[in-house]
Specification:
The protein is of the alpha/beta class and 593 residues long. The protein is built from 18 helices and 29 strands. The chain has an eight-stranded mixed sheet, sandwiched between helices. Strands 6-5-3-4-7-8 form a six-stranded mixed sheet. Strand 11, helix 12 and strand 12 form a beta-alpha-beta unit.
Amino acid sequence: MTITTINNNNSFSFGTMALTFVRFIPRLPRLAITLVQLAWAKKQRRGSTGYYLQRAAYRHPQRLFLKHQDVSYTYAAFNQWVNALAHQLQEQGIRHGDCVALYYPNSPELLAWAFAINKIGAIAGLLNPKEQGDSLAHALAVMQPKLVIAASEQRQLFDELRQYPNFFPSAKWLQQQRARYHDNPSQTARLRLGDTCFYMMTSGTTGRPKAAAMTHLRWYKAGIAFGRLALTLKARDTLYNCLPLHHNTALSIGVSSAVLTQTCLAIAERFSASNFWQDIEHYRATCFVYVGEVCRYLLQQPARDDDAKHGVRAVVGNGLRPELWDAFQQRFGIPRICELYGASEGNVGFVNAFNLKGTVGFSPMTFAIVRFDNVNETPERDRKGRLQKVAKGETGLLLTKVSAKAPFDGYTHNPKANAEKLFHDVFKPGDCWFNTGDLVRHQGYRHIAFVDRVGDTFRWKSENVATTEVEAQAGRFHGVLAAVAYGVKVPHTEGRAGMVSLVLEHGRAFDAKAFYQHIRQALPDYAQPLFIRLQSAHDITSTFKIRKHQLKLENFSIEHVTDPLYVLLDRQQGYQPLDRHIFSAIHQGTLRF
């Protein structure tokens, strides 16, 4: 079953692009400068996150850099704070190439630590503050940090983290040293763009979560492309971010855009749909960073007469579904939506620089969209073993070419996973392409639209969930013989909700309450399956692979599934049987997740 969806409404005509180009003419000089800057950036060039922060502090010392709640920092003040932390890290023996893991919610402290770590050539390992138990232990094992620093409020996990050598349960004693040092560390100016600056946990498309390596080069390119070209940030702007800073959308797009344009960044600890626009007004934000779920939740809020009365002129992010695009843009009166596409471990990015609708934009880098067999979850090859590109309007698997201009930085300490993400001899002997694991639609004129993910990973609540990790935790519950996890579409929601099919020991009754207690302790909220299916056995192929595709098709539909089904509606109550009344309410949108 090959995906060859053709929808002319999702591709662009020559007339549309010609009109778009005419409107874009005033911004052509900026585009030309941006392309030159991107072409200049190479691994061997000097530069780093910390270098660009201190350069902004030198050029605009009194300009506001960061706002958080009622506290603000100028570029000079923040840079001095970072310098103090950097010198203290050196006194603790942290050197170039070492990893320092950070276990923090969104805060000025998290950003100060990240920049300080980078200033001395070390790598900031961004941990998800929601992770605990095996998930947290796995992340630490993958990153292999020399030092772990956690926020003082994370006391409930201190006993767990104390088992890790070189753990600082509170950074206050270091933060109080900010007045001792003011000078920029000497090695900051010598760092190369090709050096690694961050480790970020990502599920990729197969296996357990991995640490994707982010280089200063990619961080720089993101700030130039999204901050200067897409958002056209200027000194008077404030960019608002309520997304978690352990994700690339926030840290390597939001923060880099502000620093590379030397504008102001406002951060919230977390997203709140009810307080979002109050935050925008409080910080006097002119732009903000989003993911698709943010847009949907904002639309679900009761309409107000002043919905469009704000100073926001442009937004940047990913995951805004086509069916929500017009409603979101019109209700909130946002002139420009800079939808983008990228992956933590990927080597290319797309951005909607021309302000078109329903697209993640274009990329000047080399990419290809190839035919994909959705049943066997593999790209199609012709008689010569080569992959086949789709036509305009069709959907296929997105590949990006690996080259000196677009290197694949890969996963940390995981050569096997790196090898699995690369295709060789794709169109000609010796070529190498990165498999994004994403299905996209070819819209023409180097533009694409995101369609879905393939493999055993799905996206829910702005997080990528690895089914293998869900299966591993579900399989540890007493009486479970086999567990298969997958993502299912739920009406009126973004992404895919987690569902797990369980096979129990013969004669074993299913204890839904105990299973939920087990899952909630083993997995973060976003990874906990919302639906459960009990089966006597799983259907397997001749190579002993479970036919997960059929499970996805059957979903949690009462009409097609006769097995017992459970749903997680109330986290106080846990899982409860899914009956026709609940099923109907979910489809009508009266019950939401």
